[in-house]
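Thread: Newbie trying to understand structure tokens

Hi all, I'm a second-year student working on a class project, and my supervisor (Dr. K.) asked me to get a predicted structure for one chain before our next meeting. I've only ever worked with sequences, so writing a 3D structure as a token string is new to me. If someone could post the tokens and maybe explain what I'm looking at, I'd be very grateful. Here's the chain:
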Amino acid sequence: MAQIKTVYDHIRSNNIKTALLVLLFPLIFIGLVFLFTWIVSPIESAIETTIAVATPTIIVCGVWMLISWAFGDSMMLGAAHAYEISPDNSEHREIYRMVENVALAAGLPTPRVYIINDNSLNAFATGRTPRDASVALTQGIIKKLDRNELSGVIAHEMAHIGNRDIRLDMLLITGVGVTVFIADIIWRNIVYGNYHHSSDDHENRNGATVLLMVWLAFMVFNGIITPLLRMAISRNREYAADATGAHITRNPGALASALKKISSDSRVECLDKIKSMSSACIANPAAPREFIGDLMATHPPIDKRIERLESMNIK
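---
Reply by user tm_fold:
Sure, no problem. This is what the structure looks like when written as tokens:
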């Protein structure tokens, strides 16, 4: 019989995965830049180019991740146009009390509570630690779920807080954008630079070719490697949060029922184009893109999550 993992096992596992991710991201990035530039230049030149590109990129990413550590939760909440509620707010007092009760059952501090002005059904948690965490709920999820289902969703988000998933999500969401920004700068330099002014200038043509390969390395990293690395741990974290959330409420059926309703309308329009936010939400907040199927999905299929929850036997 398989040993049942505790919350502490999940926390330890996620800490190890976080460390591996922090190590893998720069290593893979450096490897890609080297391989792409090596295709069009000698190995010595490829090494020099890799150092010249990777060093400032990693430094900028490191600085940006420190900034995100301080302000990342505000960035995410701002992107969702979320506004904070308090226990003194008569309109949302019941919601705040529900979050407070679930936090108490989870043995965690009560997070700040935010509302997203959208009629879809979605939610996410963010913050550096459980002591400064926040939970954001859409208007739709508050209106369309019953009390037990909403408690299940809140418990799922509290599980992410307790398992320290929110720290990793926050750093990835705010940090990965740096390489996208740098790739855009490189592309603009290729298009609007001085490389095409003289067709006979061999050095200019070589410089443009190397720069193009560097840009391609960035595009592969941003478009393929980063989603795959995030997907590698995202699905297990969602399953773990579902299981932990079900244990908090002692009602896996309620969360399963909530997921069924959420699957019918999880799109949050203000997050539709912010792909990096998808992994933080309980379900993908972007418009469905059928051509990619489950290949790049940040979440396990909801029907499989529901199946696992319905098979749980909590006494």
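A couple of things are worth pointing out once you decode it. The beta strands are 82-85, 112-116, 123-126, 134-138. Residues 152 and 251 are 7 Å apart (CA to CA). Feel free to ask follow-ups in this thread.
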